[in-house]
Every structure is written in structure tokens, then in C-alpha cells.
Amino acid sequence: MSITLTTFLPAHLPALTAFLNRVLASHRHWAPISEADFAERVLEQPAFDPKGLILAWDTESSQVVGGIHAIKPAEIPRDQLQEPRHHIAWLAVAPEMRGMRLGSKLLMAAENYLYYCPVYFAAHTTPFYGIIEKLWMPWYGSTERMGISATNDRELVEWLGRRNYHPTRPGDVSMVATLHGRERPADPGLSAHGLHVAMINEENPWQGDEPSYRLRNWGRNGGRRYQGLVIADGDRAVGSAVWYPLPDGVTAALAWIGLERRYRGLRFGSYMLDRALIEMAARGYLSVEVEVHMKESPEAYAMFRHRGFQVIDYWVNLVKT
Question: How far apart are CA 69 and CA 270, in angstroms?
Fold first, then answer.
């Protein structure tokens, strides 16, 4: 069998999506990838460089049998959330090709393209493949990114470890809770602080001031559904929670919850989460899933646990320095 590595060309899109749909189907939350979807999420993004998307071809069958996507840092506008890092978003090899060092060849090609370390593998801030650009379900992994599961991807973690990729930032988890039987929370006194609650969605996005830029980045979200609530001081958001539907239609993904520090300790954060859970249930969702970092966001993790959220998966962040 003869294998050739090439960088991506537009004509490769059908073979690439067919390959990804074949090799990723066993991953959690996997959904079929269409050519139009891949083009919109990846190829049409301003920071995409086709030289970093490297494919392995079986020259006899003209099929893709492996691939890797390395991403160099681009100029980041101040209203974008990506960090200027070198990333490898994913590495995949067809089952029949494993054990033939194809993965090593792809990884070496990706590292040669990136040309210096550190390199972050399947990190939370990887462009294109998570919810940084828009609120859409990643093709597999958690509700926020295509990640490496400590539970299901141990072989890959060990393989990368032998190539000097080491875990960093341990504590990323996915949690899930049922929405059944929750009671509407009492207002903790928002008006006494000059605050009010505003509901938002893709048809009525937040248009006021917002320090984190998240809400304005998502905006109308290309027409894709999402809902949220904002705690506002006039036309300035001081706290917000945003969720979107997972493919099953009955599970909501809590993509973001945040509150300015000066309003913490007043039960506003707890109220915002409880109110969001009630709003999700009112819209027909049966359960909710969220990704949170146990160590870096201990208050949020404790708040979720107190409301019945249970850990269902652990995500491995890797870096080569």
C-alpha cells in the first residue's frame, strides 16, 4: 500500500468529510459532518490556512486514511476569544492503518508546519472546532470543544505522551443534571442594585455593552437556535447565562454563565443559574449539560454540584513545550 501526505485543497472536501464521518462515529456526541457544515465552520473562517490541514491518502483507492489539523495563531481582533497559540485540533487514522506509523508521520508533518512549541493538542481554546466562533455543537466531545476524554481516549493520551505531549490544567469535566421538578427562584434583590433581567436569543441578541464580548460575538448566531438571560445595569450586561440545544432536542448545553466579580456574594449568580434552568425546562428540555473546570472555577463547580449536576466525563488538556 502506498501512502501520500498532501495539504488540503477544496477538491478534497468530499473525501475528507467521508473519512471523518467514518473514523469519528464512535465518539461521544458525534453527529455526521456535511461538506457545507465543514466549509462553514472551518474552511470559510478568516484564520484558516489549508497548509495546516494535512491528509494521508491511499494512492490505490484514492481515499483519505488519515489526517491532522494544525493551526497557527492568527492576528486576533480584540473582540475575539481565541488565544494566540499553536494548536493541533485533531489527529485521526483509519483503523486498518493503525500500527503502521502513519499517526507519527502526520504528527511530524503538523509540527513541522507549526515549527515551534508550545503546541496545544485538543485544547479548550482551539479555533474552528468548538463554540468560540458560534454556538454550535462540536462534532464530538464536550458541549464546548472537540476534546480528548480521559475515560475513552486513554490509548491516544498514552501515545501522545510518548511523543512529549503532557497533560496540563487537570480538572476539566462535563456535568449533567435533570431539569425535572425545579422551582422558580425568588428574586434576590436585583432592583435594589439597579439591575434587571433581559431574555435573549438568536432573533433578539444582546446589543448593549458587554465586557467579555461573548454575547456580541455570538449575536444572531447565523440563525442557529440559542437562548439566554442577561442581568443588566441599564444597557450594560453585568452577568449572563446562555444555552443551546444538543442534537437530541431534549438536552440543553449551558455554554456560558458569568457574573462580574463585584456582584458576587449577593446570590445573583445562583439566581441566574436557577432562573436559567427554569427557562430551559419551560422550553421543553429534560436535562442540561455543561463543561466546567473543577480547580479553576471551584465556585461554579460547587454551584453545579449543589443543584444536582453529576460528572460524566473528564477532558485531557495536552501541551508539548
Answer: 39
Q: Count of residues for the chain?
A: 321
Strand runs labelled E in the chain: 3-7, 53-58, 63-71, 86-93, 119-121, 148-149, 166-178, 196-201, 227-233, 236-245, 251-259, 287-293, 310-320
Domain 3-171: state its class: alpha beta
Amino acid letter, residue 188: P
- Please name the residue that has the C-alpha cell 449543589: 306
Is the pLDDT reported for residue 79 higher than 50?
no
Task: Scan for cell 457574573, then name that residue.
Answer: 259
pLDDT higher than 50, residue 42? yes
Cβ atoms of residues 56 and 106 within 8 Å:
yes
- Does residue 78 surpass a pLDDT of 50? no
299: part of which helix (H) or strand (E)?
helix 298-306
* 180-285 to CATH, choices 3.90.420.10, 3.40.630.30, 3.40.50.10490, 3.20.110.20: 3.40.630.30
pLDDT in tens, 251-297: 999 999 999 999 988 999 999 999 999 999 999 999 999 999 999 99
Euclidean distance between CA atoms 40 and 36, whole angstroms: 6
